[in-house]
Amino acid sequence: MKPESTVSRRRFMGGTAAALGVLGLSPQTALGSGLRPPPKGLAPLDPYDDLAKLSSNENPYGPSEKMMEAMQGAWKYSNRYGYPDGDILEKIAEQHGVGTDHVMINAGSGETLRAAGLAFLRHEEKVVGVSPTYLTVYQVASGIDADVIARPLLPDHTQDIDDLIAVTNRNYRDVGMVYIVNPNNPTGVVVPDDDIRRLLDGIPEDIPVLIDEAYHHFVEDPGYASAIPYIKEGRKVLVTRTFSKIYGMAGLRLGYGIAPPDMIDQMRGYATGSVNALVKWGGVAALQDHESERWVRETTIALRNQTVSELQGQGFKVLPSETNFFMVHTGRPAAEVRAEFRKYDVAVGRDFPPMLDHLRVSVGTEDEMKRFMTAWNEIFPDGMTAADSNSGS
Asked: How far apart are CA 374 and CA 254, in angstroms?
């Protein structure tokens, strides 16, 4: 037993009041003890391999009870084509104030991103974005011999909008699409709405702009806003969303895109239409289950803030995340740190070049975050000083 590890854990348990207070929750004596219990059906029932899964940014609680009931009721359509689907397209369109001709559903937002890449990029055309970010669009571009212009983040890990505008305008004739992930993955940092508008105003209006809003539900920054209103203005914008995060459907696969009808029409030929009956009904129920959505959001943010506060208290720099994950500077190769975590049955995020000394950590359940901090305090028993010594600095 390492004495400092015990002290660190006690400090973690007691240092959470500020984070919980933001949400109006009352901290007690342990991590998460002031959190409201989950609505019925929102609890992990069958964890596999006893692994704390903090590597892929899922919702650790899974679909809500209302979603499960809706999907169970949809089994009766499993042998039918042309089945009732709960009017999922209409429900999504209604939520965003657009017509159904502006909406396309797919098997996860990843399929929407792939369809967009194939629809709007041609051989030797260019997609302009940043690095590091979510790679699906870049992978599609590479697969069709399109070019990727991936610009570095600024020193504060924000996206350099002026640079993206300049690069896009310099390459105007060859740019097939501009790509923004907001909040960005893996950093969790948002692009303020003013910057999104400046980007749209600063580039030719005929260039499609894809904005991935997978983590939209977790954002608290008042300067952030969804880009969907720009679609209503007639801008050439595609916004993608997913049910994998806030709604717990990562393994079920449901996502959608919202764009002007002509862009949706361009993309249709590149999508499989593989969303099944159960998933559609689960998605409809998810959109209507505001209680469970609110609980997942508040609990995730509270646990994230508690954990970040403790890491910062030990001297580690954590990027300001507006998502269900955070990125912490380890001071040593993150690959080494990941290997250490696996010894404690905790899985944490992969490498994100060039940020190879940063670790992305998904926010799990209260128990998983306790396990994460217990392992962290064993791996870094002296806080950031241990990381400094390991890196040779």
From this structure: 34
